[in-house]
Amino acid sequence: MVAFSIASLMHEPPEIVDRFVDYYRRAGAQEILIYVDGPAPPEPPKPPAVVVACDAGFWQGRGGRPEGLENRQMAVFGAAAERCRTPWLLIVDSDEFVFGNRAIPDFLDRIPDAVDSVRVPPAEAVWGPGDPLGEPFAATHFRTTWPTSAVSRALRRLIFGRVSAQMRQGMTGHTRGKAFLRTGRGIDTIQNHGARRGGQRVTVDLARVDPHLRGMYVGHFDATGLEHWQRKWRMRIEGATLATAMSRARKAQMQRIERSIREGGDAPRALFARFHGVTRMQYLALATLGHGFRREIFAPGSSPMPEVTPPTPEGRLYTPGLS
């Protein structure tokens, strides 16, 4: 079975870090590289996690600490690739958990050797029927990306209402997914959603690699819980976290969230429910249209590799040199 490692830049409380480490340990990761933007935590997580403090010495060796989050991520991911000792490296955030219809090593074993990096599509976690709204990591429903057609936009507006204008392809978070990359292949630029070599993109979307490999996702908890969601956005609103590459829809979300926080009372919770919750009818519509499913990836005794049978539209095998 193919060995793989994880790399992530995070600055999270111990309970989130421990969940992340435990998940990927059970998924088979041989090493979990956790880069902390600052001093190392007093109590590091258990093996196979390794904490790397991005302190003054670290940044001095990387040419200085970039101001923007995205540039810091690229610097950290490059450092992770240099020290990675396994054939594959997965780049994810602390709120992202790969799952699907097969184990990660088995999935990677089926990737053609010509593919140096493969990107797994996102499935965004939302609180649905039966989920305690806002409780940390209690979302068990997932929604997937929609096409960009006018018909799809109209259907999304019917399902999500006015907040659909602050979403992209039915998502509040990213729509591109996250990438596994092969080490030792001369990849010199690693971004949040893919990699390049000599300025040329090497990351291939899973749907183009092999249609038979569909069914793997990166589960994105764009909101891990109500309290954490408010803290994350306050840091962005106040400038403590400078994200320079936010999309127009993401900026519109931030404006609405800022208004709700300023309003106070029940306003933040109500907006949270609009963005990150789905009613029974909304979920039924999503599932019927092939853009929603349910899975308890953190249930006691559950496997990180659940049985998911998503729609499998026609695809074609990846051929190097063809787009």
Give an overview of the whole structure.
The protein has 323 residues and is α/β, with parallel strands linked by helices. It has a single domain (4-294), classed as Spore Coat Polysaccharide Biosynthesis Protein SpsA, Chain A, CATH 3.90.550. 32% of the residues lie in helices and 20% in strands. It contains ten helices and 15 strands. The chain has helices spanning 14-27, 56-61, 69-83, 104-109, 150-160, 206-209, 226-237, 248-263, 267-276, 280-288, and strands spanning 4-10, 31-36, 49-53, 88-91, 96-100, 117-120, 122-126, 141-144, 178-182, 189-190, 195-197, 200-201, 203-205, 216-220, 292-294. Strands 3-2-1-4-9-6-13 form a seven-stranded mixed β-sheet, with helices on both faces. Strand 11 and strand 12 form a beta hairpin. Helix 7 (226-237) packs across helix 8 (248-263). The two termini are 30 Å apart. Residues 306-323 have low confidence and may be disordered.
How many alpha or pi helices?
A: 10
Number of strands: 15
Percentage of residues in strands: 15-25%
Radius of gyration, whole Å: 19 Å
Mean pLDDT: 89
The CATH architecture name reads Alpha-Beta Complex
For the terminal residues, how far apart are their CA atoms? 30 Å
* Derived structural class: alpha/beta
Order of helices and strands: EHEEHHEEHEEEHEEEEEHEHHHHE
Low-confidence stretches: 306-323
Give the oligomer, counting copies of the same chain as homo and different chains as hetero: single chain
**Biggest pleated-sheet summary:** 7 strands, mixed
Question: Can you tell me the CATH class?
Answer: Alpha Beta
Shape estimate = globular
- Tally of domains: 1
In the CATH scheme, what's the topology name?
Spore Coat Polysaccharide Biosynthesis Protein SpsA, Chain A
Q: Could you give the order of strands across the largest sheet?
A: 3-2-1-4-9-6-13
How helical, in percent, are the residues? 25-40%
